[in-house]
Amino acid sequence: MSIEIANVTKRFGGFVALDDVSVSIPSGQLTALLGPSGGGKSTLLRIIAGLEQADSGRVTIEGLDATNLPPQKRNVGFVFQHYAAFKHLSVRRNVAFGLEIRKRPKDEVRARVDELLALVHLRQFADRLPSQLSGGQRQRMALARALAVEPTVLLLDEPFGALDAKVRKELRDWLRRLHDEVNVTTVFVTHDQEEALEVADEIVVINEGRVEQIGSPDELYDQPANDFVMRFLGPVTQLGQQLVRPHDLQIHTGTADPAAVTGRITRVTRIGFEIRVEVTTADQIVTVTLTRNEFLSLGVQTGDTVQVQVAEQVHIGAAYPQTLGAA
């Protein structure tokens, strides 16, 4: 294992940021620490980096006990949300900085910087100042600077949080491709579920200082350990006492099925290729997500009475927590 976090606890006064957290992160993997704000994910990342000291527990990086090592001896690269660029230095000098303070030969520094600028598609901007770059370009520069010293582990703290949605999408696609090229063990913090599901090999869901579940994106989405994980990783609705994904429900208009719940369509909303249908039953509002073609084939509209049930191919018992409020 590249990183082992064993029984780590961290308090800030009376606030417990991490409560006996243990996580294993395999070498070469891209792992997301996902959770709501204040849940402890950034604190865990900073403890791995050595920027915070745990009150108890152990951190091992590539077999080396790093619990009490200072940051500069852990061989980790760290990228913050707000770049932390040297404003008076060119892009080239920013990327070269870590190598220069390590007294690397000038030819080696030049070659390494050229290689990284090409990798992050910034070679043509090498002589510009950070202020002359877009937000996405500055973040790519920050990643190149972190990679320059060939870290064992790359740590990213909400790296795209300050960017608009379109640039975030472009950069997370780029980050996945970059990780596949350089193959460095990468851990990134995010509260964006789509970002984690799209980019990560493995996701660690953290809430209120505890690990809720660890697994692949598919495992967490299809087999959430509890209601919190299910609600946090994607849309949910409630049918009777069961939490379900809206796209795992069906609407039909024929003879009532014993497993179906009868209700009336009270709202229809189109969002791109999706149609979201709200069905009001005797005691709740159920949201069903359909494709446009599925909706049109039903021939229904607002005010019609319909039946709603879980799609036959969905095995609720295996896929979801058994009942609302399951631990």
Describe this protein's structure.
This protein has helices at residues 41-49, 91-101, 106-119, 135-148, 165-182, 193-199, 217-222, 227-232, 292-298, 316-319, and strands at 3-12, 15-25, 30-34, 56-61, 64-65, 76-79, 153-157, 185-190, 202-207, 210-215, 237-239, 242-244, 249-252, 261-271, 274-280, 285-291, 305-310. The strands form four sheets. A six-stranded mixed sheet has the order 6-7-8-3-9-10, with helices on both faces. A five-stranded antiparallel sheet has the order 13-17-14-15-16. The chain is α+β, with helices and mostly antiparallel strands and 327 residues long. Helix 2 runs parallel beside helix 4. It has two domains: 3-228, P-loop containing nucleotide triphosphate hydrolases (Rossmann fold), CATH 3.40.50.300; 236-311, Beta Barrel (OB fold (Dihydrolipoamide Acetyltransferase, E2P)), CATH 2.40.50. The two termini are 29 Å apart. Helix content is 29%, strand content 31%. The protein contains ten helices and 17 strands. A hairpin with a 2-residue loop joins strand 1 (3-12) and strand 2.
Broad shape: elongated
CATH superfamily of the largest domain: P-loop containing nucleotide triphosphate hydrolases
Mean pLDDT: 88
- Overall CATH class of the largest domain: Alpha Beta
- Tally the helices: what do you get? 10
What integer value in Å does the Rg equal? 24 Å
| Global structural class | alpha+beta
* Count of domain modules: 2
Low-confidence stretches: none
Kindly report how far apart the N and C termini lie: 29 Å
Please list the strands of the largest sheet in the order they lie side by side: 6-7-8-3-9-10
CATH architecture heading of the largest domain: 3-Layer(aba) Sandwich
Instruction: Give a quick account of the main beta sheet: strands, pairing sense, barrel closure.
Output: 6 strands, mixed
Range of strand content: 25-35%
What is the string of helix and strand elements? EEEHEEEHHHEHEHEEHHEEEEEEHEH
Named CATH topology of the largest domain: Rossmann fold
Q: How many strand segments?
A: 17
Query: In percent, how helical is the residue content?
Result: 25-40%
